[in-house]
């Protein structure tokens, strides 16, 4: 049998049965050695197989008890080989005909054991009105540059709420590497997109985010307000990081009479905090 694409079998382990997935990769039906790598008691192998079988028909309101062995395996999978093995099993389940409840269950467990291998699978859902939120829930929390990149790449193809969601997810990952992509959207003509990009930059914070926010002339008052809020968020982050001088520059720039009352109040409090006063 040729080695399957993305197979998580560890060196020396006996290989399980490999099947093609509709997502374009292959996954393994785990062998007994696989389950040992997942730290699952061999006595419970059948329980885990039965749990994945039950997952195929799981729905909202159903008894979750039959799925407990999958959750236990996810919690027990501490090393990378065990996590990769279970990840492939979960991705294989996504390649089936799970309903939304089953997909939600899998995405939540991928937060525990997922890696860059999950990124291209979940990326296929980013344009789906029904499943995009499930995919983003996992993509926001799975570490790795591959995950970040699929979100950045999706910015070129998504529209509407799905695009706004992907922008928000990049902000939720708090990675400075996303700033250039968000900065490009900030300078665009779409008000909702620019506003979302400003908010995401405010979530990421840091000196590079401050620079990106200051380099754009707002196309509308809504975008201007979002940039102002994001700058306040960045100043708060800089102050918390001990960079009071940088934070003070931002706060002082927002204390002018041209600022709304709530912005002036927040900036003034920031100036006092930079001075060590409450």
Describe what is shown at a glance:
With 278 residues, this protein is mainly alpha-helical. It has helices at residues 32-37, 45-55, 68-76, 80-94, 100-113, 119-123, 132-139, 145-154, 160-173, 179-186, 191-204, 207-214, 221-240, 244-253, 261-274; strands spanning 17-20, 26-29.
Structure, explained:
There is one protein chain. Helix content is 60%, strand content 3%. The protein has 15 helices and 2 strands.
**Coarse morphology:** elongated
Spans with pLDDT under 50 lasting ≥5 residues? 1-32
- State the helicity in percent bands: 55-70%
Specify the number of helices.
15
Q: Tell me the structural class.
A: mainly alpha
Number of strands: 2
Ends distance = 69 Å
Which strands sit side by side, in order, in the main sheet? 1-2
User: Element order, helices and strands?
Assistant: EEHHHHHHHHHHHHHHH
Percentage beta strand: under 5%
Q: Tell me the radius of gyration.
A: 23 Å
Largest sheet report: 2 strands, antiparallel
pLDDT averaged residue by residue? 87
């Amino acid at each position: 049998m040729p080695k399957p694409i993305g197979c998580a079998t560890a060196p020396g382990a006996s290989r399980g049965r490999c099947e093609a997935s509709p997502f374009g990769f292959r996954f393994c039906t785990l062998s007994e050695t696989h389950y040992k790598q997942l730290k699952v008691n061999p006595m419970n192998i059948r329980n885990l197989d039965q749990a994945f079988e039950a997952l195929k028909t799981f729905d909202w309101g159903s008894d979750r008890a039959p799925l407990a062995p999958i959750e236990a395996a996810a919690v027990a999978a501490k090393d990378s080989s065990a996590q990769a093995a279970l990840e492939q099993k979960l991705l294989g389940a996504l390649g089936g005909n799970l309903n939304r409840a089953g997909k939600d269950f899998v995405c939540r467990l991928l937060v525990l054991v997922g890696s860059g291998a999950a990124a291209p699978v979940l990326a296929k859902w980013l344009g789906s009105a029904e499943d995009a939120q499930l995919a983003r829930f996992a993509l926001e929390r799975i570490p790795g540059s591959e995950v970040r990149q699929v979100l950045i790449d999706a910015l070129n193809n998504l529209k509407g709420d799905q695009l706004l969601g992907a922008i928000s997810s990049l902000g939720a990952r708090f990675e400075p590497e996303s700033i250039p992509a968000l900065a490009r959207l900030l300078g665009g003509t779409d008000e909702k997109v620019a506003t979302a990009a400003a908010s995401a930059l405010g979530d990421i914070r840091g000196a590079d985010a401050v620079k990106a926010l200051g380099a754009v002339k707002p196309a509308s008052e809504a975008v201007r307000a979002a940039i102002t809020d994001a700058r306040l968020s960045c100043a708060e982050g800089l102050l918390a990081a001990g960079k009071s001088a940088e934070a003070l520059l931002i706060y002082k720039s927002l204390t002018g009479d041209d600022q709304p009352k709530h912005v002036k109040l927040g900036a003034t409090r920031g100036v006092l905090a930079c001075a060590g006063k409450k």
